[in-house]
Specification:
about 350 residues; Rossmann fold; 5-stranded parallel beta sheet; 12 helices; disordered N terminus
Length: about 350
């Protein structure tokens, strides 16, 4: 690169401060930007336990932070020893730490997701009310680089290159919310069905024993042909994913990580919206949900009996279960539909798309 080219090299800082799945989805925009503008110096600030997922990605400098204090310490070092950034782009994050970050970082342009911190971030994009999961992050980046095309899939290339499928089918049954977690009964059904469907394959049920919802599953055990595979770190989880031919998952961060590694995924949706999750050209993604629920989103975050999820999993396992609607909260979407309607499950291999109506 010539001196003139170096002088024109833009320095861009992306901030991803959120949960695992949201971080992986937002990183697709970082990857798209780095590929579209390989001459730019791209830095991404991300939680320390997620940083190893991205540290070998070409064209991206990854800075991890273990705490709020560590984040500001690293930003103070950058402020003192590096030139200003051309752009500070917050793709994921909220709250006082994001406002404080914007005040500390020296950048010619500062862009946030919306106008909440307009005194710190004077620019933000217009985001439609209905949008795909990845679009807010992409719109922030496009505010700075108007020609940046939307990412068509999620891919962490350095992790995808490590895959060595080995006749293993995985199940990821646990989410960070009980309303998105498969119960022991349907996990048993799904594991038995997959063992029969994929003769000669190992069935691995992936569980972090530290998760609150893990104990009931571990206590209940699994059918013949299936076994638990415990992981406690993301590195251990990545190693498990490297062996998989296919993953059956609830709507959780593990699904997004597997998809970004190129693992074909069947995702079972209960209260959340299938149309919103995923990318337009994500390979190997199949979404499953009770058809009567359509694109509706359930606001009953305190639900501890996800009948909507369990009916969908049971149906795809070739089984039927009692609906359990009577035990759900009064605001449960299933209560709006006739019993026979909630037994019909939609298996959708089509790409996610914003509903027309």
């Amino acid at each position: 690169m010539s001196r003139a080219q170096q002088d024109r090299r833009r320095r861009v800082l992306f901030v991803l401060r959120g949960k695992l799945g949201d971080t992986i989805v937002a990183f697709a925009t970082v990857r798209a930007y780095a590929d579209a503008y390989p001459g730019d110096a791209v830095t991404v600030l991300v939680r320390g336990n997620y940083a190893p997922l991205f540290e070998r990605e070409a064209g991206v400098r990854v800075i991890g932070f273990s705490s709020r204090l560590a984040m500001f310490a690293k930003l103070a070092f950058i402020r003192g020893f590096e030139p200003p950034f051309d752009a500070l782009l917050v793709l994921l994050g909220a709250g006082p730490p994001i406002a404080g970050l914007g005040k500390m970082v020296r950048a010619r342009r500062k862009i946030f997701l919306d106008g909440r911190f307009r005194d710190v971030y004077p620019e933000w994009p217009e985001t439609p009310d209905k949008h795909l999961h990845f679009e807010p992050a992409w719109l922030v980046a496009r505010k700075y680089a108007p020609e940046l095309a939307a990412p068509q899939w999620s891919c962490i290339l350095s992790l995808a290159a490590r895959r060595r499928p080995a006749m293993v089918i995985g199940i990821a049954p646990i989410s960070d919310e009980p309303r998105r977690t498969m119960g022991p009964g349907v996990v048993h059904m799904l594991a038995a069905a997959l063992a029969e469907r994929h003769a000669g394959h190992a069935i691995h049920v992936l569980v972090n024993p530290a998760d609150e919802e893990a104990k009931p599953l571990l206590d209940a055990g699994l059918p013949s042909g299936a076994r638990f595979r415990n992981f406690r770190t993301l590195q251990e989880l990545v190693a498990e994913f490297c062996m998989l031919e296919h993953l059956h998952s609830t709507d959780t961060g593990l699904y997004h990580l597997a998809a970004a590694m190129g693992v074909p995924v069947t995702t079972y949706f209960g209260p959340t919206q299938p149309w919103k999750n995923g990318f337009p050209a994500q390979p190997g993604l199949t979404r499953v949900r009770i058809g009567a629920l359509g694109g509706e989103h359930c606001e009953e975050k305190g639900c501890r009996r996800p009948a909507c999820l369990e009916i969908a999993v049971a149906a795809c396992s070739g089984a039927r279960i009692e609906s359990g609607v009577d035990a759900t909260p009064q605001g449960c979407l299933l209560r709006r539909h006739a019993r026979q309607d909630i037994e019909q499950v939609k298996v959708d291999p089509a790409p996610p798309a914003v509903p027309v109506n």
